[in-house]
Each structure stands twice: as C-alpha cells, then as structure tokens.
Amino acid sequence: MSSACNDAVAAFTSDRRACLLSTKAATNATLYCSEPSCVSQLQTLQTALKNNCSVATSDIPMVLGTQISPLFCQSNCVAAFNTMQSSLAKCQQSGVKTAPQCQACAQYKQTVPVLVEACAYNATIPSLLASVATDLSVCDTSVQNQATNSSSPSPIIYWALGSLFVCIIIGVAVFLRLKRKGGTKDLSYYRKHGQKRKVASNRKNFFLDNDVRLDPTMVDFIYDQEQLSQITLKSKGGFGLVYSAYLATSTESIRVALKQILPEKTTDIDQLESFMNEIRMAARLNHPNIVRFIGITWSSLEDLSMMTEYMSRGDLNKFLRHEYKQPSTTFSWTTEHSCNKLGIAGNVIDALVYLHGSNPTAIIHRDLKAKNVLLTENFVAQLTDFGVSRESAEDGDAIMTARVGTSAWIAPEILRGEKYTIQADIYSFGVLLAELDTLQVPYSNPALQPEIEGLSPGQLSNKVAHGKIQPAFTKQVPTAIHSIAKRCMQYKDTRRPTASQIAIEIHSLLLRDGERLSGPFANYQGQKSK
C-alpha cells in the first residue's frame, strides 16, 4: 500500500473509531450527520476510495444496517433517508390499512430510488421495495374499493399529495447529483453480497435495541465476511450451528469456529438478544483456560456469527466417550502423560476461579459439563459456551429455571427453583470430576450405579433435587479427588468449597504427583501458559 493510501486509511480509521464511540452514530441520519467525526469519516473515506486504497467492507460506515456512501450527509440525502425510515415504519403498522398509512407506503416507494441512485445507498431498489410489497398491494385494493363505493376522494388525495411531495425531493436530489463531476463508486462495488435477506418486519431496520453490532466496545472485533474461507459445517444443535473456517487477518490466516443461531430462531427477538449477550460476555473474558474470542461478522442479522479460536481436539465429552471405548487407556489421574484427568480438572477450576472472581460482579457459567470444555492440540482444557451465563445479582443470588443447563449437572437448589449463587457451578464441577473418573455421562450406567435402573428422567431429577442421589465414581478414583467431589456436591450450597479453595487442593495434588514423577508438573505449567 502506498504512503498516500496509508495516510488516507489511517485518517479514515481514526475518524471511524471516533464516530462509532459517539452515541449518535448509526441510529439516526440527522444525528449521525451532526456528529463532526461521522461527517469527517465520510470525507476521509472518499479520499481513500479516490486513491484506490483498500478499505474493508466491514469498515465502511453504516446507518441502521446499510452501508452508506460519502454522499450520505448531503441535506437532500438526509431528508430522503429520514423520509424513507419514517414512512416505512408507518406503512408497516399492523391492522387495516388507513389512508395515512397508504400515503406513507407511497412515500417509501418513491423515496427508495433517491437513496439508491442519487445518494449511492448500498442496496438495490427491488430489495428495498420487496419489504413493502404486501402493504402496497393492500393499499391498491383499498383505494380502488373506496373509490368505487364512496364519493370521498380523501385516499386519492393522500396518495397524490404524497407523490407530489416525494417527487420534489427526487427532483432536487437528482439535480444535485448531476451537478457533481465524477463521483464515487457505488458501495455495492466493495461488497460481494449487496442485498440483505428480508427479515421479519417486527425487527425494524434489521437492528435490535442495544444491538451488539452497534456496540462501541465491539469496534475492534468486527471482521468482513470476505475475510473468511473454507467454511465447513461441523455441528448442528438445538440452538445453533457451528462452522469451521479460516480468517485472513492483516498478518496471518487463522482457523476459527463460527457460531450462528439456527435460521428459524432469527425471528425470535429473545433468542437474538440472548445470542448477542453471549457475544458480549465472550468478548470481555480473557483467560488461558477460556476459549479465546476472536470477533463477529455478518451480512445481515440472520447470519450474525461469533468467531472463537478453533479447538482442534473438540470437546471433552467426545474425548471421554472415545477413551471409554478403548481396550486400555493412558488417560488417568496421574500426570505421567501430558493428557491426564488431573491436569484437565486443574484447567477447568482455574477458569472458574477467574469467572467467580471477576469484577465488578462474579460470573456464573450455569452450564458446566464435559461438552462445554474444549481441548487444544496440547490437551489444555478451555471452558466455552457462555450462552446461559450471567453476572450474579447484587444480592448475590438469582433464580434459574431447570431447563437451563442439563439436569445431571444442575445443582439441587436450581432444580427446586430456588435462589442460587456461584456455588451452583461448584456442584457442576463435582459432577464433572465424576465424568472424568468414569469416562461416562453421569447416571447413564446401571452397572456402575444400580439404583438408577428404571428411573425416568423426571424421577432422577427429583432425587437429585432432594439430595437423594449423586453420580457414581469408579473404585480406582483417588481418595483426594473423591473427597473434593463429595464436598463440591454438598446438598447445602453454603457447605461447598469455593473455586479458589478447590484450585489450591488440585494444584497441590499436581505438584505432589509431579514431584513423584520427577518433573511432569513443569510440563503441565508450560501447557497451561500456551
């Protein structure tokens, strides 16, 4: 990149950051264009594009989800944009179409070409008009019926006045556009996917309240979809999809995991907000035993994706089931081998120490189990899936329904619908120790635990809720590990140890076993720091 481009892009990046940090950006055209840093970024963008500098698509300014051009803050374009937004909202109001609503539909229909052609708005006319096609059809029928059955000309007058008003705007905009020499390229030139898929009308302008894509703290985590390659679907669950992909950064290509919610759930505002909260939670966490957050990318609300570091060995649940099926295994409670149960337990409890000690409030994972523990190439365990995590309430407790999490790992107080604290995670950690010991899902093997024979899921949950049953361990489990697990799974949450107390005990066991084997503990420490 030339020095001129470096300067131009640097100036644009600086203005862009200042604009995004302002509360006015990306929510209202008039306020956006009254913010000096936002106007300045359009000017520096124009300079960069004229010099044929490379500008990432995700960096191009956006207002309410659509990329905008350097022409956007011209007075006629701001007026057209505001008219389009207000008329769209009124046009799509539910219920029987009234004359004012039909007037709004007409305004919207005739304002769209102004934005696309005269203001270089980065969307196609057909795609914008498609969002009101049904409304326009209803209005056409309504006007025809009223014209036939009534002598009142009011609906036609509304349409005529609306059309006249918008034609004046179009005329002024086109005149100003023609006066410009040259101009800039339409922003669709810089984006492969210029058309957004249509979303439900109740999600106005494709953005939600407190939308994560407009969050100033996410500025440095936004990536263009064109930076992704070799996208492969890895798994599909009840909530979402997980893909593997390669992300091209300015210095290297890294493998990432992409998480999206299921397409059919993108019409559910609660699900979308939950996913955005998960993204915010992941972005704020930074610990060697928590999966690293990379960023977000999207072309529309429907394909919003969270990117995290790719874990080559998958989740602990699959690893344990694989080891269980082997005739013999070296995976044990001793640190003789780099992949061992004690090391993984130490990694997980370190993650909980970090979460429970977070400031200003502790974070409760709420869904700790082997399936939500991922393994790096060197078998370092990292905690993931913060979709149901929450910060503890000011009074230190909260209520969670039993549907969150999985019943085998859920603390009794949660199953009873009572208040809970960070100690609910400690109970789940005790269950995880049973998973590590037996290599099996808790309460899944009657041969190991005869009392579960014939129990329905409901009956099992009831026994757990009232402290009548706990996961089984093998006869080979070390006494110290069994003792820790039993204390973690105490019926009364106040009698359970803290994450810090457990971490001290487990690291002491690691140290003693390392001394016994003359050095492997040093290897464990080295793995953890990677």
UniProtKB/TrEMBL annotation:
Please provide, alphabetically and separated by semicolons, the GO molecular function terms listed in this UniProt record.
Answer: ATP binding; protein serine/threonine kinase activity
Q: Which UniProt keywords apply?
A: Kinase, Membrane, Transferase, Transmembrane, Transmembrane helix
Matching Pfam families, A to Z? Answer: PK_Tyr_Ser-Thr
InterPro entries named among the record's database cross-references: Kinase-like_dom_sf, Prot_kinase_dom, Ser-Thr/Tyr_kinase_cat_dom, Ser/Thr_kinase_AS, Ser/Thr_Kinases-Pseudokinases
The yes or no answer to whether the keyword Transferase is present is yes
Which residue ranges does the record assign to the Protein kinase domain? Answer: 228-510
- SMART domains according to UniProt: S_TKc
Q: Which SUPFAM superfamilies match?
A: Protein kinase-like (PK-like) (SSF56112)
User: Taxonomically, which superkingdom?
Assistant: Eukaryota
Give TM regions. Answer: 156-176
- The entry's protein name is Kinase
Q: Organism, per UniProt?
A: Thraustotheca clavata
Q: List the top taxonomic levels of the source.
A: Eukaryota, Sar, Stramenopiles, Oomycota, Saprolegniomycetes
